Amino acid sequence: QVLLVESGGGLVQPGGSLRLSCTASGSSLDRYAIGWFRQGPGEERDRLSRERVSCISANGRTYHANNVSGRFAISRDNAKNTVYLQMSDLRPEDAAVYYCATVICSDSKIYVSQYDYWGRGTQVTVSS
């Protein structure tokens, strides 16, 4: 059992930055790939259909969706059992609840199943 907790969300102006954290307990994170997902306001979708944002494999390979590539960076600190999502040049369309989950992370895609672990999300609001 892996418990994931997201933090670091908040209100930021367009063009601003935030760093989200996904911290694990109950198990060491170093053997898991971790992905970030988001669900925008008013969107009705099950968690497996959430928008894929970024992921990082256990050995540090990363993937970013096209619409965040160059603005977002994902990293991990296994000593702190934490994965980070550094978000820069934020836009109003980035506003969403951001979730982390255990995933399979490839160079081109994020895979997640009903058996993966999810956090409860952290809200990111981008507004002037």
List keywords for this structure.
mainly beta, four-stranded antiparallel sheet, 48% strand
Query: What is the overall shape?
Result: globular
What gyration radius follows from the Cα positions, in whole Å? 13 Å
What's the helix count? 0
Helix content: under 10%
Kindly estimate the percentage of residues that lie in beta strands according to DSSP: over 45%
Query: Element order, helices and strands?
Result: EEEEEEEEEEE
**Major sheet details:** 7 strands, mixed
**Mean pLDDT metric:** 95
Oligomer: single chain
- Stretches where pLDDT falls below 50 for ≥5 residues? none
Distance linking N and C termini: 40 Å
Structural class: mainly beta
Secondary structure tally: strands: 11
Q: How would you describe the overall organization of this protein?
A:
This protein is mainly beta. The protein has strands at 3-7, 10-12, 18-25, 33-39, 51-56, 62-64, 72-77, 82-87, 96-105, 110-111, 122-126. The strands form two sheets. Strands 2, 4, 5, 6, 9, 10 and 11 form a seven-stranded mixed beta sheet that branches. Strands 1-3-8-7 form a four-stranded antiparallel beta sheet, with no helix packed on it. The termini are far apart. The model has no long low-confidence stretch (mean pLDDT 95).
